[in-house]
Design a protein that fits this description.
Elements (H helix, E strand, L loop, with lengths): L17 E14 L2 E8 L2 E8 L4 H8 L6 E10 L12 E12 L16 H6 L1 H4 L3 H23 L3 E2 L17 E3 L7 E3 L5 H9 L4 E9 L11 E10 L3 H20 L9 E3 H8 L13 E2 L1 H4 L5 H4 L3 E7 L7 H12 L9 E5 L5 E3 L7 H10 L7 E7 L1 H18 L10 E5 L4 E4 L4 E4 L14 H4 L8 E6 L2 E8 L4 H10 L4 H14 L7 E7 H8 L30 H6 L9
Parallel strand pairs: 3-5, 6-9, 11-17
Antiparallel strand pairs: 1-2, 1-4, 2-3, 4-5, 7-8, 9-10, 10-22, 12-13, 13-16, 14-15, 14-16, 17-20, 18-19, 20-21, 21-22
Helix pairs in contact: 4-6, 4-16, 14-15
The chain binds aspartic acid.
The site of aspartic acid has 9 residues, from strand 21 and strand 22.
C-alpha cells in the first residue's frame, strides 16, 4: 500500500496513529540531529522528521533525498513542537520509521513552490513540473468545478450535452481555419471548427431545443495578447426563444457560477447597455463598469476657438479623473507618453486642472480662458480638485485611445479591484462592419446572426445601419460570452450571404447544408457561447488564460514541451499527396 492518507489530511486528532504517505520531496533541512522533509502531493504538505539518534541509518537515507524525489514513508503522527499556523497540517509531523525511494529525480530546473524562480518559457517547457505547483493546481481545480457547475445548471434546465465533430468544413467566425488533409480523400481537407455554430443550429432544426457543450474551438489567428489557437467554449443553443429568454437563462447560469464558486450573490438584473451607448460613454463594446469616469463629448463645445488641434478633429472627448488636480508635471508627462504609445495612438493629451482653490490651469491656456474652461468643467461634472483629460482626433481612434486612458486612470486610482465584479449585457450590435480595404461588409458577429426585424428593410437601402439581435456578456471589461438570435429563414439567410458578397453558387457550395435544413421546418432559435478559459481566469483573478489551461501554447502558437508544430515524415506527406514548398 502506498498511502493511508494524503499529504494534506493529517491533523492533531491523528496524533499517535501509524500512517503511510507517498509524495514528492519539496525540501529537506538539517537541525541538530534531526532531518526534516516537506512531503508534497496535490492535497498539501506534511512534515516528516528523521531522528539521527534513534534511527541513524534511516536518517542518512533521508539526508540524501533530493528535491522532487518520489518517496513512501511510514511513521507515527506526533505533535509538532514548532507549530506552523499557515499549514493545515501544521500541528503535526510524522516521526518516520520506514522510508523507500520510489523514484529519484534530477534537480528540477526551477523551484516548485507557490512562487517559482523559473521564467515563462522554461516553465512551459517543463509544464508537468510547473503543474505540480499549488497555484496551477488551484486554477485547474477551479476549472474542474466550473465545468461541473455549468453542467449542473444546464442539466437542471433540461439542456442536453451533445458532441459535434471536430473534422468539419469551415465555419466562418472571422478567423482562419486550421485545416487537416484527408488521406482517404486526396487533395481534400477538413477544417477544425472555429466553433460548433452550424451544428448547434442543425440540432435546433433536429428538435433538440436545449443544447450545450463544453467544447474545443480552433482559430488560426495572430495571437494577440492572451489568445490561444485552441480554446474552450461553453457553447449553447435554444429553440423557441427570444433574446430575453436567452439573456435570462444565461444570466441565471452566470449568477449560479458566482454563487457556487465565488460565494457572490447578485441581487439585481445585469444592466443591458446598447452598443451605441457603450461606444459613446466608454469607447468600447466591452466597458469596464466597475467605475464611472464616462466619456464627455466636447466636440461642439470646444471647436471654433482657434486651437487647430481641436478645430481639425472629427471628435473631441474627455474624462474626469476625480481628485487628480494635484498631478505633477511628471505624472502628466507619463500620461501623455502613455496615450502616444503606438498601440494607443493619440497625438497628444490636453489636460485641465480644476484646482482646489477654484482656479484653472491647463495645457491650452493660450487658447481658452477660465470662463471657457469652467464650462468644460461643468459639462464634465467636475469639482475643484478634479483633473480633466481630453483627447482629439479621428472618432474611432480617439474613442479607442480614451478608453485605454480611462482604464489606465481606473487602474491608477485603484478602481479596478479584482474581487469586485460588474457584469453587463451589451446588446444591439451592428449587424455588419464595413471594411475599407476590401470594400465590402463583414458580419460583425457571424453570418447566421439575425437582424432586428424592424431593420430588415435597410438591406436594400443602408445595410451598415442594420442592428443585429446580438449580445455579449461583459464582466470587468472582458468579453466573457456572446451570441445572437439566428436567422431561421432561408430567404433572409440568402439575403445575408448576398450582402456579405457571396454569390448564390458560393453560398450554396459553402452552406448548402444549412440552407437546405432551413427548408424543413427550422424553428426560431438563438444561442450564446462563453469563453470557458476566460471565465475561469476571471474567477481566479488572473490576467491570462494560459494559467487555467493545463497544456497551453506560447505566443507563437507553439507547444514548447512537445515541440509542436513540427515537420512530418516524407511518407506521411506522400500518403496525403502533399508536397512542400520552401517559405519565401
Ligand atoms: N459561435 C459564436 C462564437 O463562437 C457564438 C454564438 O453565436 O453562439 O462567437
Amino acid at each position: 500500500m502506498y498511502r493511508t492518507h494524503t499529504c494534506g489530511e493529517l491533523r492533531a486528532e491523528n496524533i499517535g496513529q501509524q500512517v503511510t504517505l507517498s509524495g514528492w520531496v519539496q525540501k529537506t533541512r538539517e537541525l541538530g540531529g534531526m532531518t526534516f522533509v516537506d512531503l508534497r502531493d496535490r492535497y498539501g504538505l506534511t512534515q516528516l522528521v528523521f531522528d539521527l539518534s534513534k534511527n541513524p541509518e534511516l536518517t542518512e537515507l533521508a539526508r540524501d533525498l533530493g528535491r522532487e524525489y518520489v518517496i513512501k514513508v511510514t511513521g507515527t503522527v506526533i505533535e509538532r513542537e514548532n507549530k506552523n499556523k499557515k499549514l493545515p497540517t501544521g500541528e503535526i509531523e510524522i516521526l518516520a520509521s520506514q522510508l523507500s525511494v520510489l523514484n529519484a529525480s534530477e534537480t528540477p530546473p526551477f523551484t516548485i513552490e507557490e512562487e517559482s524562480d523559473g521564467g515563462d518559457e522554461l516553465r512551459m517547457k517543463y509544464r508537468y513540473l510547473d503543474l505540480r505547483r499549488y497555484p496551477l493546481q488551484r486554477n485547474l481545480e477551479l476549472r474542474h468545478l466550473m465545468g461541473i457547475e455549468v453542467r449542473n445548471y444546464l442539466h437542471q434546465h433540461k439542456f442536453f450535452e451533445i458532441e459535434t465533430p471536430y473534422l468539419i468544413k469551415s465555419t466562418p467566425e472571422g478567423a482562419r481555419d486550421f485545416v487537416v488533409p484527408s488521406r482517404m480523400n486526396p487533395n481534400q481537407f477538413y477544417a477544425l471548427p472555429q466553433s460548433p455554430q452550424t451544428f448547434k443550429q442543425l440540432l435546433m432544426v433536429a428538435g433538440y431545443d436545449r443544447y450545450f457543450q463544453i467544447v474545443k474551438c480552433f482559430r488560426d489567428e495572430d495571437l494577440r495578447a492572451d489568445r490561444q489557437p485552441e480554446f474552450t467554449q461553453i457553447d449553447c443553443e435554444m429553440a423557441f426563444v427570444e433574446r430575453d429568454d436567452i439573456l435570462d437563462m444565461f444570466e441565471g447560469m452566470t449568477k449560479h457560477l458566482f454563487r457556487k464558486l465565488k460565494n457572490i450573490a447578485f441581487d439585481y438584473t445585469f444592466p443591458r447597455m446598447p452598443y451605441d451607448e457603450a461606444m459613446e460613454f466608454y469607447g468600447s463594446d466591452k466597458p469596464d463598469i466597475r467605475f464611472d469616469m464616462k466619456f464627455n463629448d466636447l466636440t461642439s463645445l470646444v471647436q471654433g476657438k482657434g486651437f487647430v488641434v481641436f478645430d481639425q478633429a472629427e471628435y473631441i472627448a474627455g474624462i474626469n479623473a476625480t481628485g487628480c488636480a494635484a498631478y505633477s508635471r511628471k505624472e502628466l508627462d507619463a500620461l501623455t507618453d502613455f496615450v502616444k504609445r503606438p498601440q494607443i495612438g493619440a497625438q497628444g493629451l490636453v489636460y485641465v486642472k480644476y484646482n482646489e482653490d477654484g482656479s484653472f490651469k491647463s495645457s491650452v491656456d493660450k487658447f481658452f480662458d477660465e470662463t471657457q474652461l469652467k464650462t468644460w468643467a461643468e459639462t464634465m461634472q467636475a469639482k475643484p480638485g478634479d483633473l480633466l483629460l481630453i483627447l482629439a482626433g479621428a472618432k474611432k481612434q480617439t474613442q479607442h485611445a480614451l478608453c485605454e486612458l480611462r482604464l489606465e486612470m481606473g487602474e491608477r486610482l485603484g478602481l479596478r479591484d479584482k474581487n469586485t465584479f460588474a457584469p453587463l449585457w451589451v446588446v444591439d450590435f451592428p449587424l455588419l462592419e464595413w471594411n475599407d480595404e476590401n470594400q465590402r461588409f463583414y458580419a460583425m458577429h457571424h453570418p447566421f446572426t439575425s437582424p432586428k426585424p424592424e431593420d430588415i428593410a435597410l438591406f436594400d437601402t443602408d445595410p451598415g445601419k442594420i442592428k443585429a439581435n446580438a449580445y455579449d456578456l461583459v464582466i470587468n471589461g472582458v468579453e466573457i460570452g456572446g451570441g445572437s438570435i439566428r436567422i431561421h429563414n432561408r430567404e433572409l439567410q440568402e439575403q445575408m450571404f448576398k450582402v456579405l458578397g457571396f454569390t448564390k453558387e458560393e453560398s450554396e457550395a459553402q452552406f448548402g447544408f444549412l440552407l437546405n435544413a432551413f427548408k424543413f421546418g427550422a424553428p426560431p432559435h438563438g444561442g450564446v457561447a462563453f469563453g470557458f478559459d476566460r471565465f475561469v481566469s476571471l474567477f481566479a483573478g488572473l490576467d491570462s488564460i494560459r494559467d487555467v489551461i493545463a497544456f497551453p501554447k506560447n505566443n507563437s502558437g507553439r507547444d514548447v514541451m512537445i515541440d509542436s508544430p513540427s515537420a512530418i515524415a516524407l511518407e506521411q506527406l506522400q500518403e496525403l499527396f502533399l508536397t512542400l514548398k520552401k517559405p519565401e
